Amino acid sequence: MAETVIFYLLAGLAVVASALVIGQRNPMYSVLLLIASFGALAGLYIQLDAPFVAVAQIIIYAGAIMVLFLFVVMLLNAPKEDGAEWDQAHPLRRPGVARFGALLAGLLVIQLAWALMRIAELEAPVGSQPDGAAVSSVRELGKVLFQRHAFAFEATSILILVAMVGAVVLARKEGTDL
Amino acid sequence: MIPLYHYLIVSAVLFAIGTAGVFLRKNLITILLSIEIMLNAVNLTFVAFGRYRGDVDGQIITFFVMTVAAAEAAVGLALVIALFRHKESLNPDAFTSLKW
After folding, report:
1. Residue A32 above 70 pLDDT?
2. Is the confidence at residue A146, as pLDDT, over 80?
3. In this predicted model, what pLDDT tens digit does every residue of B48-90 receive, in sequence order?
4. How far is CA A48 from CA A29, A40, A83, in A?
5. Which of A91, A117, A163, B9 lies at a CB distance of 3.0 to 4.6 Å from B71, suitable for a disulfide?
6. From A173, which residue of chain B is nearest by alpha-carbon distance?
7. Are B32 and A69 in contact (CB under 8 A)?
8. Are B81 and A171 a contacting pair at CB < 8 A?
9. 87-116 in A: which are within 8 Å (CB) of B?
10. Where are the domains of chain B?
11. pTM of the entire predicted model
């Protein structure tokens, strides 16, 4: 019972915070609300017996990535920028093409919910499978990550190196030598 | 015990919110944030299915998604800074020309 209440609390928090992220005019508030949404998702991961993913979510997403976003928002002084000469009407009330986009997004939810309702198998509770201890053990996770997925792991390190070099090259002032 | 499809519906709603954000917002930073929401929705699906099946593959794919999201955020924000230097604007409509 308590489990169900916690699930609905966290899920509601994640959905409401995410909805407010795209409803905000000020990108600073958007970033801070998204951190709340990520925190709620980390709680859901703990409920799914994935404590390591939950911690990584807090450290990588709420820590590193959102700090990067906050840094850029502050650097560009964006609150003054949004809603200047371009964006007079509130974005959610702008007619025409934007409404069509919102309609498509709503349609996506209905379609997905409809498809999910028709699969009877999904009624089974998530936590009822036997090997819960194996799923939540970090040792098991490390074994699979560094053995079966070793190539993908190494490829990821190259990806991060490329992204780092690319970000430095893109963000430096033009005309300056490295 | 929570049925699997509850997690999937939360994930679907989050993904739709992210999609709506990309369509509706006229601010490059908010659009990048919406992409992060979509990536997180997919992560939730992976972890829920991984727990449902009782193996760790779902969590491992989630790690890879997180690293790709970190790389995407770094490069995307560098692009936003470079664009802002040129036009002093964050509105995607300001960047319609292929050459400046």
Report:
1. yes
2. yes
3. 988 888 888 889 999 999 999 999 999 999 999 988 888 777 8
4. 29, 13, 40
5. A163
6. B82
7. yes
8. yes
9. 87, 91-92, 94, 98, 101-102, 104-106, 108-109, 112-113, 116
10. 4-94
11. 0.85
